[in-house]
Amino acid sequence: MISRRDLLIGGGAAAATYAATSFFPLIAQNAPSFGAPSVVQVGFRKQKLGDMEIVALNDGVLRRPLAAEFVKNAPLDQVQALLKSQNLPTEYIDIPFTAFLIVAGNRRILMDTGFADNGPATTGRLMANLNAAGFKAEDIDTVVISHYHGDHINGVRNKAGQLVFPKAKIMVPAPEHAFWMDDARMNAAPEAMKGAFGAVRRVFTGLSADQLTQFQPGAEIAPGITSVAAFGHTPGHTLFTVQSKGEKFAFVADLTNIPQLFARNPDWAVQFDMDADAARASRRKVFEMIVNEKMMAGGYHFPFPAFGKIEPLGTGYDFKPVA
Ligand SMILES: [Zn+2]
Predict the structure, then answer these.
(1) What is the CATH number for 258?
(2) Nearest-5° angle of CA 140, CA 145, CA 147?
(3) Bridging pattern class, strands 225-229 and 307-313
(4) Per-residue pLDDT for 13 more than 80?
(5) Ligand 1 centre and the CA of 151: distance in Å?
C-alpha cells in the first residue's frame, strides 16, 4: 500500500509499485478478433446542466477478448456470470471511449481527447462527432486531461504531430505529468510500459508554457469546474466536477473501467489500474460523493451515452445511462 504523499511526490517506493503492476492499456490490439464492434450507432449526446451544456463525444470502441487477467482479483467464471446476468457477451468486452465537452457561456472545455488518428481502426471518431454536434476544432479553448494513458491523450496531436485543437490551452494534473515525464522512471520501466512513456512524450514535448498548464488536483480549473484527486488508476488520475445552478455533474474518467463490472463490484480491479488498492479506495469515495450529492456521472469507458445516474445496488453501484 502506498500513501498519498508518496503518490504526490512520486517517491521511489511508489515508482516500484507502479512499474511492477502496470502496462499500456492498448497492448492487446493484436488479440484475436471477434468481429467489428457494433458502435456505428453512437455519436454524440447533449445534456443540459443548469446554464451549461454537456456533450458526450464518442471516439469509438475497442473489442478485446475477455481473458482471466482482465479482472485481476476475481475468477473468470464470476466475471462471466455477472456479464451474463446483464445480457452481455461473455467471450469479449467492448470498451468504449467517450470524451466530454462542457459548453459554459463562451467557454468550450474538452475533457480528454480520444486517439485522433493514432489508434486502432475502430477509434478516432471524436472530431467527426464534435463537428456533427455543431462545433469546430478551433472552438475548443481548453483541453483538460484526466490522466496520461494513450486513449485519453493521443488525440491532443495527430500522427503528423499537429495539435488537433489549435487554439486550446491544455491543462494537466501536475502529479500525473511529473510521473510520466520522469526520464529515469521511463528508463527503469519494464519494456511493455515504455510505449506508454513514449506516447506521453510524443504528445507533450514541445508545448510552450502558454499551451500547457499544470494544476494541482483540487484546484478550480474554470468557473464552476473543479478538479478532484482520484489517484490509483494512475499516479495522478484526476476527475472533474461541474456545477451550474445547483445541478452537478462529475466526469469520473477511469475511476472504473466498464461499470457493468466495476461499479457493480467496486472492489474488483481492472488490469489497467496501476495501484489497485488506491484505485479501489478512490472508487468507493467518489461513488459515495456522487450518490450523496445527487450528481450526474459520466465515464470515459461507460456505455454510450456514457453519462447518467449512479445508484447503490447490493454491495456496489449501478450505472443507469440517461434515456
Ligand atoms: Zn482509459
Answers:
(1) 3.60.15.10
(2) 160
(3) unpaired
(4) no
(5) 6
> How far apart are alpha carbons 300 and 159 in whole angstroms?
22
**CA 277 to ligand 1 center in whole angstroms:** 18
Locus of grid cell 483541453: 143
Residue 260: pLDDT over 60: yes
- 22 C-alpha to ligand 1 centroid (Å): 13
How far is 268 from 192, CA to CA, in rounded Å? 23
Give 238: exposed, middle or buried? Use CB within 10 Å, 0-12, 13-18, 19+.
buried
Task: Return residues with CB closer than 5 A to ligand 1 (ion).
Answer: 149, 151, 254
Amino acid present at 264: R
306, 58 contact by CB (below 8 A): yes
**pLDDT, tens only, 38-62:** 544 579 999 999 999 999 999 999 9
Residue span of the structural domain in which 305 resides: 4-321
Confidence band for 11, pLDDT divided at 50, 70 and 90: very low
314 Cα: distance to centroid of ligand 1 (angstroms): 26
Give the full edge-to-edge strand order of the sheet including 225-229: 220-222, 225-229, 238-244, 247-251, 296-298, 307-313, 316-321
- Number of domain units in the chain: 1
C-alpha–C-alpha distance, residues 125 and 130, integer Å: 9
Question: What is the whole-number distance in angstroms between the Cα of residue 273 and the centre of ligand 1?
Answer: 10
Distance 72 CA to ligand 1 centre (A): 17
**How remote is the CA of residue 245 from the centroid of ligand 1, in Å?**
30
| Prediction pTM value | 0.89
Rounded distance, CA 204 to CA 153, Å?
9
